[in-house]
Amino acid sequence: MKRLLFALCMMTATTAQGQDWSLDVFVGGSSPGTLTFNGIGTDLRDGGLGGLGLFRSTPDRPLEFGVEIARGQNGLAGQPGEDLTGTSVMATGRYTLSGDGPIDGYAGLGLGVVSVDYDDGTSSESDSALAGQFTLGA
């Protein structure tokens, strides 16, 4: 069974750096939306998400490689107690777009696994699949 979840996310992030390592911590929220599965749409309430990433830069610094772990949760609109949770683990590569200013932009690609869990309070169901991501940031 495949599930597809699209959410608009607004996030805040911080990065700690030491030597050639960086630790990214991010939290945010997702706006209400619709999950469509087998042609049936289900309205979602707003939700939250968070995660962290650990990266190591290459000696010439425009490339970083690392791993990211993220978790997000939404409830089903009009159905209190029913939750949809997604957890992902991604191997990620990032490329620094500029390196001359105090804030650098980057673009990244990731490949990993996502697990989606549904819980209505009396029963639960889960499924996993390969996943990918594209990121832009500063």
Outline:
The chain is mostly beta strands and 138 residues long. The chain has strands at residues 9-18, 21-30, 33-37, 40-57, 63-76, 83-96, 106-119, 124-137.
Q: What does this entry look like structurally?
A:
The chain is mainly β. The protein is built from no helices and 8 strands. It is elongated. Mean pLDDT is 82; it is low at 1-12.
Whole-number mean pLDDT: 82
| Parts with pLDDT < 50 across at least 5 consecutive residues | 1-12
Largest beta-sheet characterization: 8 strands, antiparallel
How many H/I helical runs? 0
From the N-terminal CA to the C-terminal CA, the straight-line distance is: 36 Å
Nearest-angstrom radius of gyration? Answer: 17 Å
Task: Provide the β-strand percentage band.
Answer: over 45%
The percentage helix is under 10%
- What's the count of strands? 8
Order of helices and strands: EEEEEEEE
State the shape: elongated
Question: Would you tell me the structural class of the helices and strands?
Answer: mainly beta
SSE blueprint and pairings:
Layout lengths: L8 E10 L2 E10 L2 E5 L2 E18 L5 E14 L6 E14 L9 E14 L4 E14 L1
Antiparallel strand pairs: 1-2, 2-4, 3-4, 4-5, 5-6, 6-7, 7-8
